[in-house]
Model the fold of this input.
Amino acid sequence: MRAPVSRRFVRLLAALGLAGALLLPALAAPARAADEKLVLRAGTDQKIKSLNPYAAVVVAEYEAFTLNYDLLVNFGENNEPVPGFAASWTQSADGNTWTFKIQPGLKWSDGKAATSEDARWTYQTMLDAVAKEVTLVSGYLDGYLPAAGVTSVTAPDPETLVVTTEFPSTLVLYVYAPILPKHVWEKVPFDDIASGAYTNPPPVVGTGPYQAVETKEGNFTRFMKNPNWRGSALGADEVILTTFASSDTMVQALRNGEIDYARGIAPDQFNSLKGQPNIVAVEGASNGYTELAFNCYSRNGGVIEGGGASTKALQDPAFRDALGYAIDKEELVAKTLAGYGEPGSTIVPPFHARWHVPPASPRTFDIEKAKSLLDVAGYKLDAGGKRLDKEGKPITLRLTWPDSEAENGTDAQFIAAWFEPLGIKVDASVTEEGQLIDQLLPPEGEGKAQFDMFIWGWVGDPDPNSLLKFFLAAEIGVSSDSFYENPKYDELYDAQRKESDEAKRRELLTQMQELIYVEAPYHVLYYDSQLDAYRTDRFTNWKNQPAANGTPLFGQGSFGYWGLQAVAVATPTPAVTAAPAPSGEPTPAPSSSGGSGTGGGDSTPLLVGILVAVLVVAGIVLALVFRRRQAGGEEE
Amino acid sequence: MPPAPRGSPPAHGATVRSRYFLRQVAQAILTVAFIVLVNFVLFRMMPGSPERILLGRNPNVSAEALQQTKERWGLDKPLIPDQFVSYVVATVQGDLGFSFVYRGKPVTQVLAERVGPTLLLFGLGELIAIFIGLAIGAYSGWRRGGPVDYVGNGISLILYSMPYFLIGMGLLVIFATALGWFPTYGMVTPGATYDSVGEHAADILAHLALPLATVAIGLIGQYSILMRASVIETMNDDYITTARAKGLTGGRILRHHALPNAMLPAVTLIAVNLGYVVAGAITAEKVFNWPGLGTLTVEALEARDFPVLQGVFLLLSISVVAANLVADLIYGVLDPRVRT
Amino acid sequence: MTAPVLTSGELRRQRLALRARGWRDFLHRFGRRREGLVGVAILVLYTILAIAPALFVGPLETAVTATGGRLQPPGTAHILGTDELGRDMLNLTVHGTRISMIIGFLATLVTVSVGVVLGIISGFVGGRTDILLMRITDFFLVLPTFVLALVLTPIIRDVLGGGGEILGIRISLLVIVVAIGITSWASTARIIRSQTLSLRERAFVDRARVIGGGPLHTMWHHILPNVINLIVANAVLVFAGAVLTETALSYLGLGDPFQPSWGQILNAADQAGAPGLGAWWYLVPAGASIVLVVLAFTLVGGALDDVLSPRRTGRR
Done:
């Protein structure tokens, strides 16, 4: 007897095959017109959540407004001030007045003339916000004008902008805030700008090389060439910044030719890309570092109810200094970073070539020395080999790091192993990032500072000023997470902020770096390099920013995009390593199809359409199968 | 109230059933409300505050910015009653608020953009899994002990034991890395423009292939196992023996008696699973960076984006509860013991 | 026919003999199910590895004690290759067995205990207690276990604190145990409740009540022994689910790199970019172990269900 079920099965398969055949036309690779548009695709693991520049928090969002707009003074190839919205500038004799000349004939991307009134309006809006004590969305851009001591701005004529400061400061040339088109933004209620309700939806109007024309927040943002761009011809017609969930898929996309640039890849991926044809792996010096931080809270004797450090030893610079000799920074760079980084020293990274000053007497990795220094400082071993603090308690230090920085866990393993022969037990565990932020807050920030040590990192600005803030007494409860307090440091900070003479400022910064190195509220573990990679078979003339040790894109200016040139126009070939796609499947095309097709837009109706279509087909299939069964009893 | 004996038909058909139905609906609404309110509290119990998480780790952060952001989001008011009441009032009016992470974007818009992809992925995945799984299961159960049973059941069990992301990673390595047949991430080629709807659909389908395969493969197991057990059990039932005694052939019995009854638990399972479609397999979406509700939930949890979380869980509980309700209904309608 | 009068000693002996025969019967029937035996064999193997991993591969390798090069494929020195820190994969996977199995075991303990207790009480006592408990159960049933666990884990970790160890298991892992326990007990409770409801109607329970045993006595001596079968079969499946949930939670980053479970190993593999780099040896040992263990539980659970469930009396 023939099994009836197998027949039914076969019929079902046949029906499904029929359905598949009906769908095939949709799957057929569409004929693509020859490309006139050249698109530069860059990948990052960060999201662009809003195009309002005041909402910018992460590098990708800064990159977005750097493409859209000019700053008054842009950052050049070595992060030095270069013409941006302003073509030139002079400082008055007393140093408190800056006169800027706006670029002649400058136009917004929508054709309207760009004048000093736009700059004045933008700066005035920011000053108003400070005066009203209203934060502009994320508040990251708010501080630049006050830091430079700007008190007022005027526009005596359409080509001139006058900025007045209360003390002479070069920081006026480092204001990292874009100049916005007054004719667009003045229509928006101030409250909406400040709260972030205004998202600056595309199409954006700006004077930068590319303006955003489409955005899917958290997914990708598409920029088009500024038709009124003031510089020389731009190589790419469009730029797309795409967000990837993991560096793994991003590297895959780079290999397949789906993207041209990948920012932030893991060391092992970096190694695998080196030497690949048409791919350049670039290691950039980082404007930041990873540190081992201590809970140095000393107010109220260091006592915090329900929290605080587990031992008073952490408040003692001699204790912290001794521990520094038990950290092998070279080993950390070799093992955690696979060599892609520099052993850490002072809080101003070598990236800032003009300001970084190595310590006078750097520490070495010497466990014996660490032990003897601890003894000398008054922390003796007990009979059982445990190190005791001055209160007679054995020292056990909790060590934690955020789950978003997996490599810090590797550092923690090493540190725990190195502190052990000192007689200090290290209790290491990872903490979820949101929770850790909470745990690090002191009473001044409504928290309990429940930690002893943690490993995290910072990223800086073109000017080292922002990296110096974490050790100010006023920042305890805000950005200071070690709660270090030293009036001398605060003095030096105020002085350097107002110092416009470079040599004098450098002298002040030297003292500050030395002070922090010796007293060690942080042990800077390493300066982790920025690892990027890009393809050379579609674009050429990639320039690093800074030239000596930077990366081409995601720096502090947009000229990494200016100089790019097309290698070859017309339909590019995909995939270096992937096998050719079987017919019927659309190849993952690196560039968009030609012509003015409809943008991706909102796919929901389309998705629903696809689902309904499939359901209908499925229904037909089912009906066919069932009907055939019932019609005329078959028989076996 | 004495517990109703299981499986007995309602006394007077329609009126009793509709009353029962109404009561079920009322209970469902209560359940959803309870869940949503408890979740409201639960999210705010999570350590870490949203404004610190969003703004915290930048040297330019200021105390004023943190405080103002907190106020803008209404987080400076006491949890109960202020925040609670305003939440309930707003939700009942259909206002789900604005996302913290995507400043200025309404939660309804965020959800709308993510529901489609998840529905597509899981809807299709379920469909495929149901077809293939039920077929394999039915045949395995019918031909119990035979080679097809061993192979089919074996594969089903293995697939049932594999977590989604393992299947996903495996497919990724084979089909995307090694063979390069499919794109590895996302739903569309970023920033692509299309000349026709067909092209757009084709792009989506190409990106859909691997995640769909992952989900389908992951789901086949449970349907297959369930169907097999169901068929086996039905084959042992009395009325089958009766049918056989009456002289009906195997094929007839399978199609007209065994299968329809074995379908019952399967239908229930299908309806229940469809409720979870909205949840998405978080890990499956994560492997391929499929822009659905799963990835949204994880991001929102990490960022403590309360409005989005509240919206997602509202959607989730409604769909699960509704699906359960439907499953109950279907069971009530389809159960042959009830029908006779 | 009247029952013979027995002394209490003889009664006890008779009961023991019956139970022994019951066991023999059970083992005999279980033994005839090949899949069940395969499952048991796999579980025995992994349990042995879990109890004393150091016996087989030495102490857990750390970043400091790692001996190999970065991401080395399997070779003579390291049969399963190394990870990005040079640690031996075999070493990591075997030690991961202990963590995964212990978490699974503890989570199952919590889940089943809570589920059984609440299920029996709810089914037996009935009335308003039942309705209240069912509401609560509904809440936990409606929300997918996994999503709820994601929400609860940071809260639990906040309550329990981060560092420290209990019985050699780090607190950070116990957090996962509690999270899984809290989110999974609901379906066990439902199942046990149903069974309790039908048992409650049976004659012997009425008789017990007539004789004068209190509710606790009845629940303990009469209901519980009759749901044991169900509990065991359910527990086995809960264990499998717990392993899968823990794996998924670790994959999303909630695991502990200092005591890596299989899920944590897979997470680390993902972070290092192993799938894209073709470092299959980083994925396969942990992945295969997960599948094998869960499969084993499913097989055993299915076989147990077959043997213990009264309905499956059809001819094989």
User: Anything to note?
Assistant: Chain B touches chain C through 47 residues (CB under 8 Å). Confidence is low (pLDDT under 50) at residues 1-10 of chain B.
